[in-house]
Amino acid sequence: MPPQPSPSKPGSGRRSTSVAIEIDGLAKAYGRQRALDGIDLEIPTGATCGLLGPQGAGKTTLARLLAGLEVPTAGSARIDGHPIGEPQATARLGYIPHPAGFDEGRTPRQMLRLAGRLHGIPTSRRERRLERLLIDLGLEHLGGHAIEHLDGGHRRRLALAHALVPDPDHLVVDEPTRGLGPAASRRMREALIEKTRERTLLVLTSIPDDVEAPCERVVGIEDGTIVLDAGVHELAADHGVAIAIGLAGELPQRALDELREHEAVAALRRDPTDADLELWLTDPDEAPAVLRLLVEADAPVASFDRQPPPLGATVAEHMEGQL
Questions:
Q1: Residue 216: strand, helix, or coil
Q2: I need a surface site. Which of 35, 86, 190, 231 has the fewest CB within 10 A?
Q3: Integer Rg of the chain from CA
Q4: How far apart are CA 89 and CA 318, in angstroms?
């Protein structure tokens, strides 16, 4: 399927007809092992795209190629029209590897200051920028602590700050939340959304939530080959809809029986801690009929909220495998 830009999420970056990242037949082999098998991909300037696939699919190889850290076996890729590996391409791209390598004895402030010097940023602007990054990413209270004492969530946000020091136009992030707990993962995703509003973002991950939160487009990869390319919300809409139903009282048995018999209700779950329900409908257009069924059965419906199904389930179905 040829790449298709999808509508912007609220708050997403600038839209443009120009191409930020252009990949044409890109392949990479390590001896007899082929990590990337001639992939084609275009990401417009200001777009947010998630490359989703299992470990070993070729995601990190692609990230390293785009960052100029590997040389392709075949094919080509360009950043703003400049071949990967050339200084003009590298200067436009911020890259966050996983794991990020740090000088463990330095402090975050020292590391960001050094990055600013290496990028030739004038002293006064460099100091303002690094302090703003520390504040924005919730690291200001740790700026003077040795990096070796930071936890995983702080280290990932520090890697983001480091990539943002030269204010790149585009950002490539490898496994942003792998190994993090729920709270740290949520904080990292929020930071990515906030800091890429005016940038092109490519997230490479095995975790569907890393794509669903900040990205408008999902590209599936398996065994070094692209097998899926779709808008996040369009993909979810094609696979039914989840309905969260809040109840103001006890659900009549008649309503429960009719829900179970309705042909569009694929699954029904009752929360054991309260009276609320969650339904999975195979056809989103049947949601009004289901609501009408509940009302006619005297169900005390307080809320009826449509939600897209989890991205991981819809991608796995398309890719005929589990991430």
A1: coil
A2: 86
A3: 23
A4: 33
Number of other CB atoms surrounding residue 57 within 10 Å: 25
Q: What is the DSSP string of 260-291?
A: HH-TTEEEEEE-TTSS-EEEEES-GGGHHHHH
Give the max Cα distance, the chain.
72
Q: What is the 3-state secondary structure (H, E, C) of 78-93?
A: EECCEECCCHHHHCCE
**What are the beta bridge partners of residue 76?**
24
| Distance of alpha carbon 236 from alpha carbon 253, whole angstroms | 31
Return the beta strands (E) in 148-261 as ranges. Answer: 170-174, 200-205, 217-222, 225-231, 241-247
* Rounded distance between C-alpha atoms, residue 40 and residue 269, angstroms: 41
Using DSSP, state whether 128 is helix, strand or coil.
helix
In the prediction, which pLDDT does 271 show?
63
pLDDT band at 248 (very low <50, low <70, confident <90, very high): confident
In tens, the pLDDT along 268-320 reads 877 656 668 888 787 878 889 999 999 999 999 999 987 766 666 666 666 65
For 295, the 3-state DSSP assignment is helix
How is the beta sheet containing 217-222 ordered, strand by strand? 93-96, 170-174, 200-205, 48-52, 217-222, 225-231
Please give the model's pTM, rounded to 2 decimal places. Answer: 0.75
Domains of the chain: 19-231 (3.40.50.300), 238-319 (3.30.70.100)
In contact, 170 and 19? CB cutoff 8 Å: no
188 backbone dihedrals φ, ψ, rounded to 5°:
-70, -40
For 208-227, how does the pLDDT look when each residue is reduced to its tens digit (9 = 90+)?
A: 889 988 899 999 999 999 99
Are 150 and 142 in contact, with CB atoms under 8 Å apart? yes
CA–CA separation, 157 vs 186, rounded Å? 11
DSSP state of 298: T
